[in-house]
Design brief:
The protein is of the alpha+beta class. The protein contains 24 helices and 11 strands. α19 packs antiparallel against α22 and α21 packs antiparallel against α22.
Length: 770
C-alpha cells in the first residue's frame, strides 16, 4: 500500500508539533494577526531603537594593532585612521594653491579629523631617499612618493581621523563635499579613496536580487507542482519571516556591532531556507489532502513529520552558523549570528504561519492551477514506479559506476581549490562608477599600484638608551632599504618625543596582490627583527593593508578548526537523528566534497578570472579571506536540509520494510520533485545576488548557488543513492553502547502516525490484523 495512505483506526499519542500544527490551522485568524502585529511592532522598534551596521572591527593581539597602539600613544595624529582625497587636473595643481589651502583648512575643522595634509606644502620624499633605494625601484612605480605627482597633475590629501571614517555615516560626507567644493569649482577632479570612498558608495539595494529570486521561484513552483496558491505561499511566508528577522537583527545591532554585509547575508540565507522549509510542509500537507484527510489534521500531520525534519534541519544550520565563533574572530562570529537570526525566524514561520495559512485555505489550496496538481506521490500507488524510482533502480544495479561519476565530477571541480589565494579585495576591482575605484586608478597611474596600500613601519625605541638610538636608526634604515618587493622606502622619522621611528614602505604591486602580502609578512618576520637585532627596540608593520594581512593569516590558520567543529557537530546531529554511524559519516564526507567543489568554482571565476569580468569584477581578485569560512558553515548547514529530508524518508521506509535498497528508491521517488524544486529555488535566490555591486556578496552568492546545485544533483542523485546502496542495512548500524548514550531525536515523527492518527510504523500490522 502507499506509504502515505490514510489510516483511520486507532489513535497514536500526539506530539507537541502535531498539536502546534493543528492549533495554528484551526485558529488561523489568531496566528496570522499575531504575526502581523509582531511584524509591525518589530519594525516600529527597529526604526526607533535599531542600530547601524559598521565595519569598525579591530583585531586584538595582532602586531598591526600593537603598532597602531604605539603610534596612538606617541603620536596621536599619526596613529589615527587615514583616508585619501585624490585630486587630478589636466593642468598642474600648483596653480590651485589658495583653493588647496582652503580645502585642507576646512577639512581640519570637521568633527573627528586629527589632521589634513596639504599636498602642495608637504615635503616630497623623493629628495630624501637614498640613491641605492632609488636604483631599486620598479619602472612602473614613479620615484616620487610624496603627495604630489612628478608632473604636478595628481595629488592626494591625507586626512586622519580619530575613528574609522566608514563608521561615521554617509551624512558625514556633506561636510567633506563642502570642504572640497572650492577645488571642484576650480575644475579639479576630486575622488575619495579608502574608507571615505567606501562611505561614498551607493547604498546596497537587494530588492533587484530578491525580485529575481522570487520570480524564478514562482516559475519553478508552478511548473513543479501546478498549484498557484501552493506556489505563492512559500514565498509569502519566507518574506514575512525574513522581514521579521531583519528587524530583530537591527535591534541587536543597537547593542552589538554587525558588519555592513550582515543584512544582505541574512536576507540571502533567510529567503533560501524559508522557502525550502515552507515547501517541505506544504508538499506533504497537499498529499495528505489528496489522500482524504481534513485540512486541520493534514496540517498537523505535515507539521509533525516534515515540520520535525525542518526543526532538525534548522537547528543544524544554526549550529553550523554559530560554530563560526570557534574562529575566535568576533567579526566572523557575528556574521554567522546575523544569518542564524533569520534562520530562526524562518523555522518559526514554517512551524506556525505555514500551518495557519494552510488552515485558512482549507481544501481550496489547489483551486487555481496551471496544470494537474501533484505533491509527493500518486495516490493509491502501492509501489512507486515513476521516473525517479526507475532511476534509483539503475543506481542500485551499478552503484560503483554512479559513485565514480559523482566523485570524478566533484574532484575535477575542486582542482582550482589547491591554488586558492586568500586576501582582501581592493578598490581596484570595484565598478568605475564608484569614487574609490576612480581614486584607485588615479593613484595607480601617478604613484604606482603600491600607493593604494602603503605599509607603515613603526619602531618602538622607548626602551633603547639615547646614546644607541642613532646607530639603531642607521641599522634599521639600511635593513629596510634592502627589503625585496618594495618599490620605495621612506626615511625613518622620529616622533616628537623621539621614542618611535616611523617609515612608509610602498609595495611594487597592488594591496590585494599576493606579492604585497608576502612583503608584509617578510617585513614582520625577517626584516624588522633584523633591523632591531641586538637592541630592546620592537618593530611593527601597521596600517590598513597590514591589518588585512593579519586578518587573512588568522582566518587561514583557524579555517581547519572551523571545518572540524562544524563537521563534528553536524555528524553528531545526524547520528542522533538516524542512529546510523555510517550514514552520519557518509553525510559528513559527501558534504565536504561538495563544498570543496564549490570552492574550486569560486577560485576559477574570481581568482583565475574565468568569467569574473562578466560578473562585473575588474580583473583577477583574491578570495576574500573570510568567504571560505562563511561558505563552509552556510553550505554545510544548508546541505543538511536536503540530507535530512531525504534520509528521513529512507529511514521511514527502512523501519517499515527493512528493505535497504528499495528504501532508497522509494525515498528518491517521493522526495525528488520537492528537493529538485527547492534546490532550483535556492540556487536562483543565491545566484540573484550576483548582480550586487559588492564583490564579496557576488562571491558568496555564486559559491552558495553552485554548492546547492552540486549538492542537489551530483551528491543527491549520484553519490548518496550509490553509497546507500553499497552500505545496505549496515548504513543503520550503531554500537549498542553508543545508542544507549545518544539522545533520541525523531526527525520524521514516526510516533505521530498519519493524518488520521495511527502510527505509520504500526499501520501495516494493524491492517494485517484486520
Amino acid at each position: 500500500m502507499s506509504p502515505s495512505h490514510v489510516y483511520t483506526g486507532g489513535r497514536a499519542a500526539r506530539g507537541g508539533l502535531r498539536r502546534i500544527g493543528e492549533w495554528c490551522a484551526r485558529h488561523f485568524v489568531i496566528v496570522v494577526v499575531a504575526w502581523l502585529v509582531a511584524l509591525v511592532a518589530l519594525q516600529a522598534l527597529n526604526r526607533s531603537f535599531g542600530g547601524e551596521y559598521s565595519d569598525d572591527f579591530a583585531l586584538s593581539g595582532v602586531q598591526s594593532q600593537e603598532g597602531l597602539d604605539v603610534l596612538k600613544k606617541h603620536d596621536p595624529q599619526a596613529g589615527g585612521y587615514s583616508s585619501q582625497i585624490v585630486l587630478h587636473d589636466d593642468q598642474p595643481l600648483t596653480g590651485l594653491g589658495s583653493q588647496m589651502s582652503t580645502a585642507t583648512g576646512d577639512l581640519q575643522k570637521l568633527p573627528h579629523v586629527l589632521s589634513a595634509q596639504n599636498p602642495l606644502t608637504a615635503p616630497s620624499s623623493s629628495s630624501q631617499q637614498s640613491q641605492s633605494q632609488q636604483s631599486q625601484q620598479s619602472q612602473q612605480s614613479p620615484s616620487n612618493v610624496g603627495p604630489l605627482s612628478s608632473d604636478g597633475k595628481t595629488a592626494y590629501i591625507t586626512v586622519r581621523f580619530d575613528v574609522q571614517p566608514s563608521t561615521l555615516g554617509d551624512g558625514y560626507l556633506t561636510g567633506v563635499d563642502s570642504a572640497v567644493q572650492p577645488l571642484r569649482k576650480a575644475g579639479a577632479q576630486v575622488e575619495y579613496g579608502g574608507p571615505l570612498g567606501e562611505l561614498a558608495r551607493p547604498a546596497a539595494d537587494d530588492r533587484v536580487s530578491e525580485l529575481i529570486g522570487f520570480g524564478v521561484a514562482i516559475v519553478v513552483l508552478l511548473i513543479g507542482f501546478g498549484s498557484v496558491l501552493a506556489a505563492v505561499m512559500p514565498l509569502v511566508t519566507a518574506l514575512v519571516a525574513v522581514v521579521g528577522g531583519l528587524a530583530l537583527l537591527g535591534l541587536f545591532a543597537a547593542a552589538f556591532t554587525f558588519a555592513t554585509v550582515s543584512p544582505t547575508l541574512a536576507t540571502m540565507i533567510g529567503l533560501g531556507v524559508g522557502i525550502d522549509y515552507a515547501l517541505f510542509l506544504i508538499t506533504r500537507h497537499r498529499q495528505n489532502l489528496m489522500n482524504g484527510a481534513d485540512p486541520v489534521r493534514a496540517a498537523g500531520h505535515a507539521t509533525a513529520t516534515s515540520g520535525r525534519a525542518v526543526l532538525v534541519s534548522g537547528c543544524t544550520v544554526i549550529v553550523a552558523l554559530t560554530g563560526l565563533y570557534a574562529s575566535g574572530v568576533t567579526f566572523i562570529g557575528k556574521l554567522g549570528l546575523a544569518a542564524a537570526i533569520t534562520v530562526v525566524s524562518a523555522v518559526i514561520g514554517a512551524l506556525t504561519l505555514v500551518p495557519a495559512l494552510l488552515g485558512l485555505l482549507g481544501k481550496h489550496i489547489d483551486r487555481f492551477t496551471v496544470r494537474r496538481p501533484v505533491a509527493e506521490t500518486e495516490e493509491g500507488a502501492d509501489v512507486p514506479q515513476g521516473t525517479w524510482h526507475r532511476y534509483a533502480k539503475r543506481v542500485e544495479h551499478r552503484p560503483w559506476q554512479f559513485l565514480a561519476a559523482g566523485v570524478t565530477t566533484v574532484v575535477v571541480l575542486a582542482i582550482p581549490l589547491f591554488s586558492i589565494q586568500l586576501g582582501h579585495i581592493g578598490d581596484g576591482a570595484d565598478p568605475t562608477s564608484f569614487t574609490d575605484r576612480r581614486a584607485y586608478d588615479l593613484m595607480t597611474d601617478a604613484f604606482g599600484p603600491g600607493s593604494n596600500g602603503p605599509l607603515t613601519v613603526v619602531v618602538d625605541q622607548s626602551g633603547v638608551p639615547s646614546s644607541q638610538r642613532s646607530d639603531l636608526a642607521s641599522q634599521a634604515q639600511k635593513t629596510l632599504n634592502g627589503v625585496p618587493g618594495a618599490a620605495t622606502v621612506t626615511p625613518l622619522t622620529p616622533t616628537q618625543d623621539g621614542d618611535v621611528l616611523i617609515a612608509t614602505v610602498y609595495s611594487k604591486e597592488s594591496p590585494q596582490d599576493a606579492a604585497t602580502t608576502d612583503l608584509t609578512n617578510r617585513l614582520v618576520d625577517h626584516t624588522l627583527p633584523q633591523a632591531v637585532a641586538g637592541t630592546d627596540a620592537h618593530g611593527y608593520v601597521t596600517g590598513t593593508t597590514a591589518a588585512q594581512v593579519d586578518f587573512r593569516d588568522i582566518v587561514a590558520s583557524r579555517l581547519p578548526l572551523i571545518i572540524g567543529v562544524v563537521v563534528g557537530l553536524a555528524f553528531l546531529i545526524i547520528l542522533a537523528v538516524f542512529r546510523g554511524l555510517l550514514v552520519a559519516l557518509k553525510a559528513a564526507v559527501l558534504n565536504v566534497l561538495s563544498i570543496a567543489a564549490s570552492y574550486g568554482v569560486v577560485v576559477a571565476v574570481f581568482q583565475w578570472g574565468w568569467g569574473g569580468p562578466a560578473l562585473g569584477v575588474n580583473g583577477k581578485v583574491p578570495i576574500e579571506s573570510y568567504v571560505p569560512m562563511m561558505m563552509f558553515a552556510i553550505i554545510f548547514g544548508l546541505s543538511m536540509d536536503y540530507e535530512i529530508f531525504l534520509l528521513s524518508r529512507v529511514h521511514e521506509n527502512w523501519m517499515r520494510t527493512k528493505d535497504a535498497k528499495d528504501s532508497v528508491a522509494h525515498a528518491l521517488e517521493i522526495t525528488a520533485r520537492v528537493i529538485t524544486c527547492a534546490a532550483l529555488i535556492m540556487v536562483s535566490v543565491f545566484a540573484a545576488f550576483i548582480v550586487s555591486d559588492n564583490i564579496v556578496v557576488k562571491m558568496l552568492g555564486l559559491g552558495l548557488a553552485v554548492s546547492v546545485l552540486i549538492d542537489a544533483t551530483v551528491v543527491r542523485l549520484l553519490m548518496v543513492p550509490a553509497v546507500m546502496t553499497l552500505l545496505g542495512s549496515h548504513a543503520w548500524w550503531t554500537p549498542r553502547w553508543l545508542d544507549r548514550i545518544m539522545p533520541h531525536i525523531d526527525a520524521e515523527g514516526d510516533h505521530e502516525g498519519g493524518p488520521g492518527g495511527v502510527s505509520a510504523s504500526t499501520a501495516p500490522e494493524r491492517e494485517r490484523a484486520s
